[in-house]
Amino acid sequence: MEKADNRMEKEIKAPLVSESNSPRNGNGVEDQTMVYFSTFVAVCGSYAFGSCAGYSSPIQSAITKDINLSIADYSLFGSILTFGAMIGAITSGRIADFIGRKGALRVASGFCVAGWLAIYFAQGTVPLDIGRLATGYGMGVFSYVVPVFIAEIAPKNLRGALTVANQLMITTGVSVSFIIGTLISWRALALAGIAPCVVLLLGLFFIPESPRWLAKTGNQKQFEAALQRLRGKDFDISEEAAEIQDYIETLEKLPKAKLLDLFQKRYIRSVIIGVGLMVFQQFGGINGICFYVSSIFESAGFPSDIGTIIYACIQVVITGLGAFIIDRAGRKPLLLASASGLVLGCLITGLSFYLKAYEIGLKAAPALAVTGILVYIGSFSIGMGSVPWVVMSEIFDINIKGAGGSLATLVNWFGAWAVSYTFNFLLSWSSYGTYILYAAINALAIVFVIMIVPETKGRTLEQIQSNLNSS
């Protein structure tokens, strides 16, 4: 009797499912290796983006001399990049929706490779401009597809940090181009731009497609297989898969969205947030300051080469810091801190040019200018440089993500062109007034973030979009 009682007591205390025999414990252990590898492959496109953006700055004198370019010729060569990017932005959403996120990455890589080869073999202005236009188109597609792909494959606790890796690799690509462009010829620098595209094209053979896109297109088996690869073979994906599938089925009942549908009441808040953040990101002055940072340092009496290297290093380091803390601090606090720093940086820089214009405290003017520019770029890198792309990839319903993302990206590239084109005109009007104007725009960005932008940290994409739509 005692042996029987003891045996019964042990059976009662034993777990219903044996841990040693069960392949999963709860939800199992999530293996994030494939998520990290897929992100690495995708951000090779971001690095290619940065290589395109940073190409024209260090090679201006060499390429102008070798090809006998006039100032007008080189101005066209530099600015046509943004026109290609605008075209890429317009078409990127449709391409990504039609042939998938991986397919869109292949298209962008192909255009960049073709563009770099055209520049490398160029003997005149026409192939140079065609090549620059092609690389710009690839940039425009990359600027939309990379953050969207990362957001759709990442678990919610990693989504912010992994999406910010997009901006980190862009700044790294720009900085590397700045540095090695002073060491090698402009043709060799063009060949170097092909390298990240080749890595991306090869890597795409080894990573899964976006599960959310597969679910949207009705590929149920591929959707589950892709999600399982991303979460690990022993992880229970049933809950996440069901949530995604339910959301997709709800969206499928809605009519297919067109561009004008973005302005329906259901989606208008998402559009205001996505487009508004892109407006403030660009019209706060970043591309004017970035494109002409060397001349700004020179006019302030500071060595331009040293200033540019410091500028590039700060940009990379602080963008990396932002990637590390975004899922801890949240999107909204980073945006507010960043915009506040941008206001301060503009005011300090504006003060330096005010002192120089009225010949007051001339010895302090260079130090103030350098301090202001470095505060500005550090503040931009921690938040306004990367977080708008993170938020843009999170807020649109998947059935309008193509149209919404294309609109936001187009606005971003239009702003980049407008600011870079008008910067010198504004400086000729008033050097210190230009920075006061940018400070005012960044102050409005603070108000916009406080009143309009939601916090998306720690939520699934479906939860974010459901909350936005209901509100």
What is Rg? 25 Å
Q: How many separate helices?
A: 21
Low-confidence stretches: 1-5, 7-26
- Total number of strands: 0
Kindly, what is the distance between the CA atoms of the first and last residues, rounded to a whole number of angstroms? 66 Å
Element-level helix/strand string? HHHHHHHHHHHHHHHHHHHHH
Largest sheet: none
* Structural classification: mainly alpha
**Which range best describes the helical content: under 10%, 10-25%, 25-40%, 40-55%, 55-70% or over 70%?**
over 70%
- Beta-strand percentage range: under 5%
Write down the overall mean pLDDT: 82
User: What would you call the shape?
Assistant: globular
Describe the structure.
The structure is a single chain. This protein has 471 residues and is mainly alpha-helical. Residues 1-5 and 7-26 have low confidence and may be disordered. It has helices at residues 2-13, 33-54, 60-67, 71-121, 125-153, 159-180, 186-192, 194-203, 211-216, 220-231, 238-252, 268-283, 286-291, 293-299, 304-329, 331-357, 365-384, 387-395, 401-429, 431-451, 461-470. It is globular.
